[in-house]
Amino acid sequence: MTSDRTPDTGRTGVSRRGLLFGGAVAGLGAAAAVGADALLSRARPGRAPGVASDTAASIHGGHTVDFHGAHQAGITTTPQAHATFVALDLHDGTDRDALRRMMQILTEDAARLTQGEPALADSEPELGAVPARLTVTFGFGPALVARAAGPSAIPEWLRPLPAFTIDRLEPGWSDGDLLLQIASDDAFTVAHATRMLLKDARSFASVRWTQVGFRRAFGAEKPGTTMRNLFGQVDGTANPSPEDQDFDRLVWATDGWLAGGTGFVLRRTHMDLDKWDRLDRSGREQSMGRTLANGAPLTGVHEHDEPDFDAKTNVGFPVIPEFSHIRRARSENADERIFRRAYNYDHAPSGGEISDSGLLFVSFQADVTKQFVPIQRRLDELDLLNEWTTPVGSAVFAIPPGCSGGGYIGETLLG
Amino acid sequence: MTSDRTPDTGRTGVSRRGLLFGGAVAGLGAAAAVGADALLSRARPGRAPGVASDTAASIHGGHTVDFHGAHQAGITTTPQAHATFVALDLHDGTDRDALRRMMQILTEDAARLTQGEPALADSEPELGAVPARLTVTFGFGPALVARAAGPSAIPEWLRPLPAFTIDRLEPGWSDGDLLLQIASDDAFTVAHATRMLLKDARSFASVRWTQVGFRRAFGAEKPGTTMRNLFGQVDGTANPSPEDQDFDRLVWATDGWLAGGTGFVLRRTHMDLDKWDRLDRSGREQSMGRTLANGAPLTGVHEHDEPDFDAKTNVGFPVIPEFSHIRRARSENADERIFRRAYNYDHAPSGGEISDSGLLFVSFQADVTKQFVPIQRRLDELDLLNEWTTPVGSAVFAIPPGCSGGGYIGETLLG
Where is this region: Disordered (chains A, B) (predicted)? Predict the structure, then answer.
């Protein structure tokens, strides 16, 4: 049904998952094999106390992703099944020194939890023993950066996105001073880690919003299968892969305290599934520019076929319509690209509705203004999908670089 | 850490998961091996179109649970990782004939979706291809039964539970006319199936409440590991197993239209994790009567050791305190037992809190009044855990028996 190529998640996902999930290898053999892959994949079989020793290779709860490194984990990591995004507002008294303490505490506990160890003041230490590829990724809003190092330290692009005509933004889903992205293949692990980290942060900041997302379960589909969104569309085919030559240039910032970090955009996008239901299959495929069956462009057969935007129908119309999403999202400028890592959401409906669903659109890019905004502007001007989708939340954060074992996230800003 | 015995989930879970997840067998071999186990386990490798043929045995998205049978699926089924419980209120005009049509439509689509086939009017047919052990279990509230067959058809126990002093019930989490329990190892599958079934039901009923729960991910832990709740307690050790000699007597009703069905109780129980954090480890173990490390009774070493309620400390106090949960939950009467199938919940916190978490306590029993109520009454009178837990929702439903391929759920009441 879908190709073996995995531009959505990074090709490393195939080898890693193949290794760890297939059950053919275990113990030192697997560790060594994965080690060769570690620069990109950051994954290895679990070190979780009491888990790694007595479980088969097919039990994935002990799998861990390295916390330390040049970049934070949770960006190029093959997306886990569950992610919770939490934005916090800093308390008035949280000054530069307090920010440093907060990030030191959060870093220590995030590092421990991701390796299957309890947080330092873990009230339920047994719950930390199943990391299931837990990653914790921190992001800073403009107010945090200003408190830490003055307004001049704020990257030009670290501010609310320009207003788009399609936006119906709610403050309760937008902005914030500190971001936590907490992701794991186990929803229980996400819940426990979120609580432990919010306990650490409560003296410094309070929760502004929490957004909970999911993708397919670990092992439910063939590794490398591109995600479908709740419209049924194959979503993410054209995403750059961490193996691509220009990936580093597109994603990693190179200047100042943010060098090795990146920019983060979260657009909470409501999807009107009831209205979508009234559109026929052909209309749905035209709006996207891809088939529903396997995500192939309307000019192709396989998902990863390159779209032919010049192809015309018998009567002279473009096969991939002018208003289609893939045509509008595509730029002539190779720098106007982003790295997506989206999750679905599905809330309990209210007031006679039967669903409240959508996409937590997440993208990483070195410069939000230069890379994300032009794409969004084109989609704002014309994109048939706008008929069924509405951005209801929007947030931009700077993701600091990673740190080594003795350091902490944010040290390049706060150290 | 934990025993190989699986009274929580049924021993069949071990063999089934071992077979399907270990990756050692596939195709016809697995089908035959599992077939021998099917009476209890109801599971077999997937028939999902386009999935079963090209995936390895270790990919679990194609796994299916039989929909048809003497009992509905989703009761003795080893609990899936995700479950959504939806209660609906019938529209005023939904009479006996309409109820029959509704249940015929719902049965048809539930049967299809659980087997990896699209619903009849599926608007996103590709989303149904990953059942991941999807089960759909229907329950009837007293008003539905009365409309279908008059008040005399309502079982004596099918009514709101008696008021308990610990209750702080909210109508928005309680009662209802029709229950859907939709469970799968894949959260995306639960979301899609829920939406398809609510579309079927919308002409007949509207959503009263939706409650979303999770357990550990499929394959994250060794099969048969007893669930921990968000307090970190091993929760469910003493649960009867479908293999137990008296399981059928405890769970399945034998009279009238409900023969082969059962009684369902859902207690939404808020857990005050912040208050729990202030209790030391010894206090936590005393409140439960079991250790936190592995769930062993305070008089034992291993999780499944039989508690010794007569054992005394050096100074003459009971080792398992009088107020402990396991002592209060236990009855001298072997008929006062229930079959639990609980899920955890974790919602976005509001108003300065850092969590809104708890347990969707779910139990199945042939007679709610005789089996569930005496236990709950004892816990209401005295149970140290009441200090940290508060029931905020309560619902009782009658779960009709299963049906065969030509039939529909509820036919014994509506046929």
Answer: 284-306
Cβ A290 vs Cβ A237: under 8 Å: yes
A vs B, Cβ pairs < 8 A, gives 195
Please check whether residue A15 is in contact with residue A78, taking contact to mean a CB–CB distance below 8 angstroms: no
Q: Write phi, then psi, for A249 (nearest 5 degrees).
A: -65, -40
Nearest-Cα residue of chain A relative to residue B356: A195
DSSP, res B256 = G
Count the Cβ atoms, other than its own, within 10 Å of residue B243: 13
- Residue entry with tokens 């293999």: B243
Q: Report H helices in B71-137.
A: 96-114
Alpha-carbon torsion, ordered A364, A112, A209, A403, to 10 deg: -40
pLDDT (tens digit, 0 to 9) for every residue of chain B, 415 residues total? 333 333 333 333 323 333 333 333 233 233 333 333 332 333 333 333 333 333 345 799 999 999 999 999 999 999 999 999 999 999 999 999 999 999 999 999 999 999 999 999 888 899 999 999 999 999 999 999 999 999 999 999 999 999 999 999 999 999 999 999 999 999 999 999 999 999 999 999 999 999 999 999 999 999 989 999 999 999 888 899 999 999 999 999 999 999 999 999 999 999 999 899 889 999 999 989 999 999 999 999 999 999 999 999 999 999 999 888 898 888 888 899 999 999 999 998 777 788 899 999 999 999 999 999 999 998 888 888 888 999 999 999 999 999 999 999 999 999 9
Whether B217 and A217 lie within 8 Å, measured CB to CB: yes
Distance CA A80, CA A215 (A): 7
Which residues are registered as beta bridge partners of B84? B182, B212
Pick A23's closest partner by Cβ from B23, B50, B186.
B23
CA end-to-end distance (rounded Å), chain B? 50
Q: Out of A175, A186, A235, A383, which one is annotated catalytic?
A: A235
A235 is catalytic: yes
Round to whole Å and give the CA distance between B245 and B263. Answer: 19
pTM for the full predicted model: 0.87
Q: Which of residues 263-322 of B touch A (CB under 8 A)?
A: 273, 276-277, 292-293
Cβ–Cβ contacts within 10 Å for residue B350, how many?
10
Structure tokens at B115: 């087997």
> Which residues touch A403 (CB under 8 Å, ≥6 apart)?
A68, A107, A409, A411
